[in-house]
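Form 7-S
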Amino acid sequence: MSIGKNNQAMMTSEQPCAEFQEQLPDLFESGANLAEQEHLKTCEQCSALVRDLEYIAQQAKLLLPIHDPSPAVWENIQTSLSSDKQSSDSRPTK
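Output:
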């Protein structure tokens, strides 16, 4: 909610900003098309907030850990290391 010159809450589309912002988590979770929200069509402050939140959500996805390789990959690495160790153990030393 933004505060106007007379410390009054600004309202747009007959819905107060605070009320709309309380609904945002549910709207994001539902996958709703936020561009269709009437409040955002007339409220630049909430539109900017939604753009920022969408950007943060996109960037956060990049922070997710990469999936661990399958157990077969680890087994192949271990087999390769064991083979290398056996090869080095069977070499004559000077």
